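Regression test attached.
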Amino acid sequence: MKVGIVAYQGSVEEHALMTYRAMKELGYQGEVVEVKLPEDLKDVDALIIPGGESTTIGIVAKRAGLLEPLTDKIREGTPVLGTCAGAIMLAKEVTDAKVGKRSQPLIGLMDVKVIRNYYGRQRESFEAEVDLASINEGRIHTVFIRAPAIVEVKGRAMALSKLDNVVVFAQQDNMIATTFHPELSNSTAIHKYLLRLAKA
Amino acid sequence: MRLYELSFWEVEEFFYKLAEIKDVIKEAGLLEYYPEFKKDLKLPAQATTMVRHAFPVFQKGGVVMDVTNVEQATIAENAGAVAVMVLDKLPYDVRKAGGVARMADPKVIEEVMNSITIPVMAKVRIGHYYEAKVLEALGVDMIDESEVLTPADEEHHINKWEFRVPFVNGARDLGEALRRIAEGAAMIRTKGEPGTGNVSEAVKHMRIVMKQLRELRSLLPEERLKKAREFQVPVQLVDLTAKLGRLPVVNFAAGGIATPADAALMMWLGADGIFVGSGIFKSQDPEQRALAIVLATSSWDKPEVVLEAQKTISESKTMMGIDIRQLKPEELMQVRGL
Protein backbone atom coordinates (compact mmCIF):
# COMPACT_ATOMS: atom_id res chain seq x y z
CA MET A 1 0.00 0.00 0.00
CA LYS A 2 1.29 3.46 -0.90
CA VAL A 3 0.03 6.51 0.96
CA GLY A 4 0.82 9.92 -0.55
CA ILE A 5 0.91 13.07 1.57
CA VAL A 6 0.57 16.45 -0.13
CA ALA A 7 3.86 17.65 1.27
CA TYR A 8 4.31 21.34 0.49
CA GLN A 9 3.59 22.65 3.92
CA GLY A 10 2.16 21.83 7.36
CA SER A 11 1.93 18.68 9.47
CA VAL A 12 3.51 16.35 6.88
CA GLU A 13 6.00 14.53 9.13
CA GLU A 14 3.37 14.10 11.84
CA HIS A 15 0.97 12.46 9.36
CA ALA A 16 3.74 10.21 8.02
CA LEU A 17 4.64 8.92 11.49
CA MET A 18 1.00 8.25 12.43
CA THR A 19 0.36 6.52 9.08
CA TYR A 20 3.33 4.20 9.61
CA ARG A 21 2.09 3.42 13.12
CA ALA A 22 -1.43 2.74 11.81
CA MET A 23 -0.01 0.39 9.15
CA LYS A 24 1.91 -1.48 11.82
CA GLU A 25 -1.17 -1.79 14.05
CA LEU A 26 -3.25 -3.12 11.16
CA GLY A 27 -0.49 -5.41 9.91
CA TYR A 28 -0.45 -3.73 6.47
CA GLN A 29 2.72 -3.52 4.42
CA GLY A 30 3.30 -0.18 2.82
CA GLU A 31 5.12 3.09 2.47
CA VAL A 32 4.40 6.79 2.80
CA VAL A 33 5.55 9.11 0.01
CA GLU A 34 5.58 12.87 -0.49
CA VAL A 35 3.34 14.28 -3.21
CA LYS A 36 4.54 17.59 -4.68
CA LEU A 37 4.43 17.08 -8.47
CA PRO A 38 1.81 15.33 -10.68
CA GLU A 39 4.10 12.30 -11.26
CA ASP A 40 4.17 11.66 -7.49
CA LEU A 41 0.49 10.60 -7.70
CA LYS A 42 1.41 7.45 -9.63
CA ASP A 43 0.37 4.20 -7.86
CA VAL A 44 -0.84 6.04 -4.77
CA ASP A 45 -3.59 4.06 -2.95
CA ALA A 46 -4.58 6.73 -0.44
CA LEU A 47 -3.98 10.45 -0.02
CA ILE A 48 -3.57 12.79 2.92
CA ILE A 49 -3.90 16.56 2.74
CA PRO A 50 -2.33 17.81 5.98
CA GLY A 51 -3.01 20.72 8.28
CA GLY A 52 -1.36 24.01 7.38
CA GLU A 53 -2.51 27.20 5.68
CA SER A 54 -5.09 26.29 3.03
CA THR A 55 -4.23 29.42 1.00
CA THR A 56 -0.56 28.40 0.82
CA ILE A 57 -1.26 24.75 -0.05
CA GLY A 58 -3.78 25.79 -2.72
CA ILE A 59 -1.57 28.45 -4.33
CA VAL A 60 1.49 26.17 -4.44
CA ALA A 61 -0.48 23.12 -5.67
CA LYS A 62 -2.01 25.16 -8.47
CA ARG A 63 1.33 26.60 -9.48
CA ALA A 64 2.97 23.14 -9.45
CA GLY A 65 0.25 21.78 -11.74
CA LEU A 66 -0.83 19.32 -9.04
CA LEU A 67 -4.28 20.68 -8.25
CA GLU A 68 -6.00 19.30 -11.36
CA PRO A 69 -4.51 15.76 -11.40
CA LEU A 70 -5.03 15.58 -7.61
CA THR A 71 -8.70 16.52 -8.03
CA ASP A 72 -9.08 13.90 -10.79
CA LYS A 73 -7.43 11.24 -8.64
CA ILE A 74 -9.87 11.91 -5.79
CA ARG A 75 -12.85 12.10 -8.17
CA GLU A 76 -11.86 8.65 -9.47
CA GLY A 77 -12.30 7.29 -5.94
CA THR A 78 -8.88 7.30 -4.25
CA PRO A 79 -9.51 7.52 -0.48
CA VAL A 80 -8.38 10.88 0.93
CA LEU A 81 -8.07 12.31 4.43
CA GLY A 82 -8.08 16.10 4.78
CA THR A 83 -7.31 17.55 8.20
CA CYS A 84 -8.01 21.22 8.98
CA ALA A 85 -6.51 22.97 5.92
CA GLY A 86 -7.02 19.67 4.09
CA ALA A 87 -10.72 19.72 4.98
CA ILE A 88 -10.94 23.26 3.61
CA MET A 89 -9.27 22.11 0.37
CA LEU A 90 -11.84 19.32 -0.05
CA ALA A 91 -14.91 21.49 0.61
CA LYS A 92 -17.14 22.84 -2.14
CA GLU A 93 -17.97 26.05 -0.33
CA VAL A 94 -15.53 28.03 1.83
CA THR A 95 -15.83 31.38 3.59
CA ASP A 96 -13.80 33.05 6.33
CA ALA A 97 -15.38 33.89 9.69
CA LYS A 98 -14.01 37.44 9.64
CA VAL A 99 -13.22 38.61 6.11
CA GLY A 100 -15.94 36.57 4.35
CA LYS A 101 -15.57 35.01 0.93
CA ARG A 102 -12.13 34.98 -0.69
CA SER A 103 -11.09 33.28 -3.87
CA GLN A 104 -8.55 30.56 -3.15
CA PRO A 105 -7.62 27.47 -5.17
CA LEU A 106 -9.55 24.43 -3.85
CA ILE A 107 -10.24 20.79 -4.74
CA GLY A 108 -13.93 21.41 -3.98
CA LEU A 109 -15.38 17.91 -4.32
CA MET A 110 -17.04 17.44 -0.94
CA ASP A 111 -20.59 18.61 -0.55
CA VAL A 112 -20.00 20.60 2.64
CA LYS A 113 -19.78 24.24 3.61
CA VAL A 114 -16.74 25.19 5.69
CA ILE A 115 -16.10 28.39 7.61
CA ARG A 116 -12.40 29.15 8.06
CA ASN A 117 -11.15 30.38 11.45
CA TYR A 118 -14.61 29.55 12.84
CA TYR A 119 -13.57 29.54 16.50
CA GLY A 120 -11.40 32.67 16.17
CA ARG A 121 -7.67 33.21 16.33
CA GLN A 122 -4.86 31.24 17.99
CA ARG A 123 -5.95 32.40 21.46
CA GLU A 124 -9.28 30.63 20.87
CA SER A 125 -7.52 27.43 19.74
CA PHE A 126 -8.10 24.52 22.13
CA GLU A 127 -7.57 20.89 22.97
CA ALA A 128 -10.57 18.61 23.42
CA GLU A 129 -11.80 15.04 23.23
CA VAL A 130 -13.71 13.92 20.16
CA ASP A 131 -16.04 10.92 20.21
CA LEU A 132 -15.42 8.52 17.32
CA ALA A 133 -18.23 6.07 18.14
CA SER A 134 -19.57 6.49 14.58
CA ILE A 135 -16.52 4.61 13.24
CA ASN A 136 -16.43 2.15 16.16
CA GLU A 137 -13.53 3.84 17.91
CA GLY A 138 -13.26 5.47 21.33
CA ARG A 139 -12.59 9.07 22.24
CA ILE A 140 -9.44 10.75 20.99
CA HIS A 141 -7.67 13.65 22.66
CA THR A 142 -6.72 16.18 20.03
CA VAL A 143 -6.15 19.85 19.21
CA PHE A 144 -8.11 22.41 17.20
CA ILE A 145 -5.73 25.12 15.93
CA ARG A 146 -7.40 28.16 14.32
CA ALA A 147 -9.76 25.45 13.22
CA PRO A 148 -12.49 25.68 10.60
CA ALA A 149 -15.98 24.29 11.13
CA ILE A 150 -18.17 22.21 8.84
CA VAL A 151 -21.44 24.14 9.02
CA GLU A 152 -23.48 22.43 6.29
CA VAL A 153 -23.43 18.78 5.24
CA LYS A 154 -25.35 18.15 2.01
CA GLY A 155 -25.95 15.49 -0.64
CA ARG A 156 -23.93 12.33 -0.10
CA ALA A 157 -21.82 13.84 2.69
CA MET A 158 -22.44 12.63 6.26
CA ALA A 159 -21.53 14.10 9.62
CA LEU A 160 -19.62 11.54 11.73
CA SER A 161 -18.72 13.48 14.87
CA LYS A 162 -19.83 16.68 16.50
CA LEU A 163 -18.34 18.78 19.25
CA ASP A 164 -20.79 21.15 20.94
CA ASN A 165 -23.15 20.67 17.99
CA VAL A 166 -20.53 21.68 15.43
CA VAL A 167 -19.53 19.04 12.87
CA VAL A 168 -15.82 18.25 13.24
CA PHE A 169 -15.60 15.00 11.27
CA ALA A 170 -17.42 14.22 8.01
CA GLN A 171 -17.29 11.74 5.17
CA GLN A 172 -18.52 11.58 1.60
CA ASP A 173 -17.74 8.22 0.00
CA ASN A 174 -13.93 8.14 -0.37
CA MET A 175 -13.37 11.55 1.22
CA ILE A 176 -12.82 12.06 4.96
CA ALA A 177 -12.51 15.52 6.50
CA THR A 178 -11.63 16.48 10.07
CA THR A 179 -11.39 20.00 11.44
CA PHE A 180 -9.12 18.71 14.23
CA HIS A 181 -5.69 17.12 14.02
CA PRO A 182 -5.59 13.32 14.37
CA GLU A 183 -1.87 13.51 13.46
CA LEU A 184 -1.24 15.41 16.71
CA SER A 185 -3.50 13.22 18.83
CA ASN A 186 -2.99 10.21 21.10
CA SER A 187 -4.64 7.83 18.62
CA THR A 188 -4.18 6.38 15.13
CA ALA A 189 -7.95 5.74 14.82
CA ILE A 190 -8.55 8.16 11.92
CA HIS A 191 -5.45 6.99 10.04
CA LYS A 192 -6.54 3.36 10.44
CA TYR A 193 -9.97 4.34 9.11
CA LEU A 194 -8.35 5.81 5.99
CA LEU A 195 -6.11 2.75 5.47
CA ARG A 196 -9.10 0.38 5.80
CA LEU A 197 -10.96 2.43 3.16
CA ALA A 198 -7.95 2.06 0.86
CA LYS A 199 -7.76 -1.69 1.48
CA ALA A 200 -11.46 -2.27 0.82
CA MET B 1 10.65 13.55 4.51
CA ARG B 2 12.27 13.52 7.94
CA LEU B 3 10.92 10.89 10.32
CA TYR B 4 11.43 10.95 14.07
CA GLU B 5 10.93 8.30 16.71
CA LEU B 6 8.46 10.27 18.78
CA SER B 7 5.09 11.72 17.84
CA PHE B 8 3.99 15.25 18.65
CA TRP B 9 1.76 13.77 21.36
CA GLU B 10 4.69 11.98 23.01
CA VAL B 11 6.82 15.13 22.99
CA GLU B 12 3.97 17.04 24.63
CA GLU B 13 3.55 14.28 27.25
CA PHE B 14 7.18 14.93 28.13
CA PHE B 15 6.54 18.64 28.80
CA TYR B 16 3.63 17.73 31.04
CA LYS B 17 5.84 15.21 32.86
CA LEU B 18 8.21 18.11 33.59
CA ALA B 19 5.26 19.86 35.21
CA GLU B 20 4.66 16.81 37.40
CA ILE B 21 8.27 16.93 38.53
CA LYS B 22 7.54 20.52 39.45
CA ASP B 23 4.52 19.36 41.44
CA VAL B 24 6.75 17.22 43.63
CA ILE B 25 9.50 19.78 44.08
CA LYS B 26 7.17 22.74 44.44
CA GLU B 27 6.51 21.98 48.10
CA ALA B 28 10.13 22.79 48.78
CA GLY B 29 9.55 26.20 47.19
CA LEU B 30 11.74 25.36 44.21
CA LEU B 31 11.01 25.65 40.48
CA GLU B 32 8.44 28.07 39.18
CA TYR B 33 8.70 27.38 35.44
CA TYR B 34 7.10 24.71 33.21
CA PRO B 35 3.60 23.90 31.94
CA GLU B 36 0.32 23.83 33.77
CA PHE B 37 -0.64 20.51 35.38
CA LYS B 38 -2.32 18.20 32.93
CA LYS B 39 -4.50 16.64 35.61
CA ASP B 40 -6.02 20.08 36.34
CA LEU B 41 -7.09 20.65 32.75
CA LYS B 42 -10.83 20.79 32.09
CA LEU B 43 -11.49 19.97 28.44
CA PRO B 44 -12.03 21.73 26.13
CA ALA B 45 -9.08 23.86 27.25
CA GLN B 46 -7.59 26.89 25.53
CA ALA B 47 -4.00 28.19 25.52
CA THR B 48 -2.45 25.05 27.02
CA THR B 49 1.17 24.12 26.39
CA MET B 50 0.04 21.60 23.77
CA VAL B 51 -2.11 24.19 21.99
CA ARG B 52 0.80 26.66 21.97
CA HIS B 53 3.28 24.07 20.71
CA ALA B 54 0.84 22.87 18.03
CA PHE B 55 0.40 26.26 16.33
CA PRO B 56 3.89 26.39 14.69
CA VAL B 57 3.52 22.81 13.37
CA PHE B 58 1.12 24.24 10.78
CA GLN B 59 3.63 26.89 9.74
CA LYS B 60 6.21 24.26 8.72
CA GLY B 61 7.34 24.31 5.10
CA GLY B 62 6.03 27.85 4.82
CA VAL B 63 7.30 31.41 4.69
CA VAL B 64 6.53 34.06 7.32
CA MET B 65 6.94 37.53 5.83
CA ASP B 66 7.81 40.77 7.60
CA VAL B 67 5.30 43.51 6.73
CA THR B 68 4.75 47.07 7.91
CA ASN B 69 1.21 47.76 6.65
CA VAL B 70 -2.01 46.28 5.22
CA GLU B 71 -0.88 46.60 1.57
CA GLN B 72 2.25 44.52 2.19
CA ALA B 73 0.25 42.00 4.28
CA THR B 74 -2.19 41.52 1.38
CA ILE B 75 0.69 40.96 -1.06
CA ALA B 76 2.12 38.38 1.37
CA GLU B 77 -1.21 36.54 1.70
CA ASN B 78 -1.78 36.46 -2.06
CA ALA B 79 1.73 35.10 -2.57
CA GLY B 80 1.03 32.16 -0.24
CA ALA B 81 2.73 33.26 2.99
CA VAL B 82 1.76 31.08 5.99
CA ALA B 83 1.76 34.15 8.28
CA VAL B 84 2.87 37.75 8.42
CA MET B 85 5.05 39.45 11.02
CA VAL B 86 4.03 43.05 11.63
CA LEU B 87 6.72 45.51 12.59
CA ASP B 88 7.20 49.24 12.63
CA LYS B 89 10.24 49.23 10.32
CA LEU B 90 11.80 46.44 8.28
CA PRO B 91 15.06 45.17 9.87
CA TYR B 92 17.14 46.91 7.15
CA ASP B 93 15.50 50.24 8.03
CA VAL B 94 15.92 49.58 11.77
CA ARG B 95 19.62 49.19 11.08
CA LYS B 96 19.77 52.42 9.04
CA ALA B 97 17.56 54.49 11.36
CA GLY B 98 19.38 53.69 14.61
CA GLY B 99 17.80 54.85 17.87
CA VAL B 100 15.49 52.61 19.89
CA ALA B 101 13.39 50.11 17.93
CA ARG B 102 10.11 49.17 19.66
CA MET B 103 7.04 47.05 18.93
CA ALA B 104 4.76 48.09 16.05
CA ASP B 105 1.78 50.40 16.49
CA PRO B 106 -1.11 48.22 17.81
CA LYS B 107 -3.51 50.10 15.48
CA VAL B 108 -1.52 48.93 12.45
CA ILE B 109 -1.35 45.35 13.79
CA GLU B 110 -5.13 45.40 14.33
CA GLU B 111 -5.76 46.67 10.79
CA VAL B 112 -3.65 43.82 9.41
CA MET B 113 -5.48 41.30 11.63
CA ASN B 114 -8.81 42.51 10.26
CA SER B 115 -7.82 42.37 6.60
CA ILE B 116 -6.21 38.95 6.03
CA THR B 117 -7.12 35.30 6.80
CA ILE B 118 -3.64 33.97 7.67
CA PRO B 119 -2.05 34.24 11.15
CA VAL B 120 -0.55 37.54 12.29
CA MET B 121 2.60 37.70 14.40
CA ALA B 122 4.34 40.73 15.90
CA LYS B 123 7.68 41.46 17.51
CA VAL B 124 8.41 42.64 21.06
CA ARG B 125 11.68 43.73 22.61
CA ILE B 126 13.67 41.05 24.45
CA GLY B 127 12.53 40.95 28.09
CA HIS B 128 9.69 43.46 27.53
CA TYR B 129 6.97 41.65 29.49
CA TYR B 130 4.50 44.48 28.95
CA GLU B 131 4.83 44.86 25.20
CA ALA B 132 4.05 41.13 25.15
CA LYS B 133 1.04 41.58 27.48
CA VAL B 134 -0.28 44.32 25.19
CA LEU B 135 0.03 42.12 22.10
CA GLU B 136 -1.58 39.21 23.95
CA ALA B 137 -4.53 41.45 24.83
CA LEU B 138 -4.71 42.52 21.17
CA GLY B 139 -4.94 38.85 20.17
CA VAL B 140 -1.96 38.32 17.84
CA ASP B 141 -1.37 34.66 16.95
CA MET B 142 2.31 34.55 17.90
CA ILE B 143 4.84 36.88 19.53
CA ASP B 144 8.46 37.13 18.36
CA GLU B 145 10.75 38.14 21.24
CA SER B 146 13.23 39.62 18.82
CA GLU B 147 16.80 40.82 18.76
CA VAL B 148 15.86 43.08 15.82
CA LEU B 149 14.29 45.45 18.34
CA THR B 150 16.34 47.13 21.05
CA PRO B 151 16.44 44.81 24.11
CA ALA B 152 14.42 46.13 27.08
CA ASP B 153 16.08 43.80 29.58
CA GLU B 154 19.78 43.06 29.16
CA GLU B 155 19.68 40.17 31.67
CA HIS B 156 16.40 38.28 31.27
CA HIS B 157 14.04 36.99 28.66
CA ILE B 158 10.27 36.94 29.20
CA ASN B 159 8.90 33.98 31.19
CA LYS B 160 6.83 32.68 28.31
CA TRP B 161 5.04 29.95 30.32
CA GLU B 162 2.92 32.74 31.80
CA PHE B 163 1.40 33.67 28.45
CA ARG B 164 -1.56 32.27 26.57
CA VAL B 165 -0.05 33.24 23.22
CA PRO B 166 2.83 31.17 21.75
CA PHE B 167 6.30 32.74 21.40
CA VAL B 168 9.10 32.37 18.86
CA ASN B 169 12.68 33.19 19.85
CA GLY B 170 15.97 33.50 18.00
CA ALA B 171 18.99 31.28 18.69
CA ARG B 172 22.54 30.97 17.39
CA ASP B 173 23.31 27.55 18.85
CA LEU B 174 21.66 24.60 20.60
CA GLY B 175 22.24 26.00 24.10
CA GLU B 176 20.42 29.24 23.29
CA ALA B 177 17.61 27.31 21.61
CA LEU B 178 17.08 24.98 24.59
CA ARG B 179 17.25 27.90 27.07
CA ARG B 180 14.45 29.62 25.18
CA ILE B 181 12.40 26.38 25.05
CA ALA B 182 12.91 25.97 28.81
CA GLU B 183 11.60 29.54 29.18
CA GLY B 184 8.47 28.49 27.28
CA ALA B 185 9.17 29.33 23.62
CA ALA B 186 6.92 27.31 21.28
CA MET B 187 9.13 27.86 18.24
CA ILE B 188 12.79 28.65 17.52
CA ARG B 189 14.41 30.42 14.58
CA THR B 190 18.05 31.03 13.77
CA LYS B 191 19.07 34.61 14.43
CA GLY B 192 21.23 35.10 11.34
CA GLU B 193 22.08 38.77 10.95
CA PRO B 194 18.79 40.60 10.30
CA GLY B 195 18.43 43.31 7.69
CA THR B 196 21.59 42.44 5.79
CA GLY B 197 20.23 40.41 2.86
CA ASN B 198 23.23 38.17 3.58
CA VAL B 199 22.39 34.56 4.38
CA SER B 200 25.84 33.61 5.72
CA GLU B 201 25.07 34.08 9.42
CA ALA B 202 21.80 32.12 9.19
CA VAL B 203 23.74 29.30 7.52
CA LYS B 204 26.34 29.44 10.27
CA HIS B 205 23.75 29.29 13.04
CA MET B 206 21.74 26.47 11.43
CA ARG B 207 24.89 24.43 10.86
CA ILE B 208 25.96 24.91 14.49
CA VAL B 209 22.54 23.78 15.81
CA MET B 210 22.48 20.71 13.52
CA LYS B 211 26.07 19.76 14.39
CA GLN B 212 25.36 20.08 18.12
CA LEU B 213 22.24 17.91 17.71
CA ARG B 214 24.32 15.18 16.05
CA GLU B 215 26.93 15.43 18.80
CA LEU B 216 24.26 15.24 21.49
CA ARG B 217 23.07 11.88 20.16
CA SER B 218 26.53 10.40 20.71
CA LEU B 219 26.84 11.47 24.36
CA LEU B 220 26.64 9.13 27.35
CA PRO B 221 24.20 10.00 30.17
CA GLU B 222 26.89 11.55 32.41
CA GLU B 223 28.13 13.59 29.44
CA ARG B 224 24.60 14.83 28.77
CA LEU B 225 24.40 15.93 32.39
CA LYS B 226 27.52 18.02 31.90
CA LYS B 227 26.09 19.37 28.64
CA ALA B 228 22.89 20.39 30.43
CA ARG B 229 24.95 22.38 32.95
CA GLU B 230 26.86 24.01 30.09
CA PHE B 231 23.59 24.87 28.33
CA GLN B 232 21.96 25.95 31.62
CA VAL B 233 18.85 23.86 30.98
CA PRO B 234 17.21 20.85 32.70
CA VAL B 235 18.97 17.59 31.87
CA GLN B 236 15.58 16.07 31.00
CA LEU B 237 15.22 18.53 28.12
CA VAL B 238 18.68 17.57 26.87
CA ASP B 239 17.74 13.87 27.09
CA LEU B 240 14.53 14.40 25.12
CA THR B 241 16.38 16.39 22.44
CA ALA B 242 19.02 13.65 22.17
CA LYS B 243 16.36 10.95 21.78
CA LEU B 244 14.40 12.97 19.24
CA GLY B 245 17.46 14.03 17.22
CA ARG B 246 15.96 17.45 16.61
CA LEU B 247 14.72 20.43 18.60
CA PRO B 248 11.53 19.46 20.45
CA VAL B 249 9.73 22.45 18.90
CA VAL B 250 9.52 23.76 15.32
CA ASN B 251 12.76 25.38 14.09
CA PHE B 252 12.75 28.01 11.32
CA ALA B 253 15.55 29.92 9.59
CA ALA B 254 15.74 33.71 9.69
CA GLY B 255 18.13 36.60 9.21
CA GLY B 256 19.39 37.54 5.74
CA ILE B 257 17.27 35.37 3.41
CA ALA B 258 16.73 37.32 0.17
CA THR B 259 16.22 34.87 -2.74
CA PRO B 260 14.40 31.57 -3.50
CA ALA B 261 17.75 29.76 -3.53
CA ASP B 262 18.60 31.21 -0.09
CA ALA B 263 15.33 29.77 1.25
CA ALA B 264 15.92 26.36 -0.35
CA LEU B 265 19.46 26.32 1.08
CA MET B 266 18.14 26.87 4.61
CA MET B 267 15.53 24.13 4.16
CA TRP B 268 18.24 21.76 2.91
CA LEU B 269 20.29 22.54 6.02
CA GLY B 270 17.38 21.31 8.13
CA ALA B 271 15.11 24.31 8.74
CA ASP B 272 11.38 23.57 9.16
CA GLY B 273 10.46 26.83 7.39
CA ILE B 274 11.56 30.39 6.62
CA PHE B 275 11.19 33.92 7.98
CA VAL B 276 11.92 36.63 5.41
CA GLY B 277 12.47 40.09 6.84
CA SER B 278 13.79 42.80 4.57
CA GLY B 279 14.40 40.38 1.65
CA ILE B 280 10.96 40.86 0.07
CA PHE B 281 9.84 44.41 0.66
CA LYS B 282 13.34 45.87 0.33
CA SER B 283 13.63 44.32 -3.14
CA GLN B 284 12.40 45.95 -6.37
CA ASP B 285 10.03 43.05 -7.18
CA PRO B 286 8.18 42.14 -3.95
CA GLU B 287 5.12 40.40 -5.52
CA GLN B 288 7.09 37.98 -7.71
CA ARG B 289 9.78 37.49 -5.09
CA ALA B 290 7.30 36.64 -2.31
CA LEU B 291 5.68 33.92 -4.47
CA ALA B 292 9.06 32.65 -5.68
CA ILE B 293 10.35 32.23 -2.12
CA VAL B 294 7.12 30.41 -1.12
CA LEU B 295 7.52 27.97 -4.05
CA ALA B 296 11.21 27.37 -3.35
CA THR B 297 10.57 26.77 0.36
CA SER B 298 7.75 24.26 -0.13
CA SER B 299 9.57 22.36 -2.90
CA TRP B 300 13.17 22.90 -1.77
CA ASP B 301 14.04 19.25 -2.51
CA LYS B 302 13.12 19.71 -6.20
CA PRO B 303 15.92 21.81 -7.78
CA GLU B 304 13.91 22.22 -10.99
CA VAL B 305 11.13 23.97 -9.04
CA VAL B 306 13.64 26.20 -7.26
CA LEU B 307 15.14 27.02 -10.67
CA GLU B 308 11.71 28.01 -12.01
CA ALA B 309 11.17 30.17 -8.93
CA GLN B 310 14.59 31.78 -9.24
CA LYS B 311 13.87 32.59 -12.91
CA THR B 312 10.80 34.64 -12.02
CA ILE B 313 12.88 37.17 -10.11
CA SER B 314 15.82 39.28 -11.21
CA GLU B 315 19.13 39.41 -9.36
CA SER B 316 19.41 43.10 -10.21
CA LYS B 317 16.26 43.67 -8.15
CA THR B 318 17.52 41.81 -5.06
CA MET B 319 18.30 44.05 -2.10
CA MET B 320 21.93 45.12 -2.20
CA GLY B 321 22.90 43.44 1.05
CA ILE B 322 25.61 44.10 3.60
CA ASP B 323 28.86 42.20 4.09
CA ILE B 324 28.85 41.01 7.72
CA ARG B 325 32.56 41.86 8.02
CA GLN B 326 31.78 45.52 7.29
CA LEU B 327 29.58 45.72 10.40
CA LYS B 328 31.09 47.03 13.61
CA PRO B 329 30.71 44.67 16.62
CA GLU B 330 28.17 47.04 18.23
CA GLU B 331 26.04 46.90 15.05
CA LEU B 332 25.50 43.13 15.29
CA MET B 333 21.94 42.24 16.34
CA GLN B 334 22.59 38.52 16.88
CA VAL B 335 24.56 39.06 20.11
CA ARG B 336 21.51 40.55 21.85
CA GLY B 337 19.90 38.25 24.47
CA LEU B 338 21.93 35.02 24.73
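Expected vs. actual: identical. Chain B touches chain A through 54 residues (CB under 8 Å).
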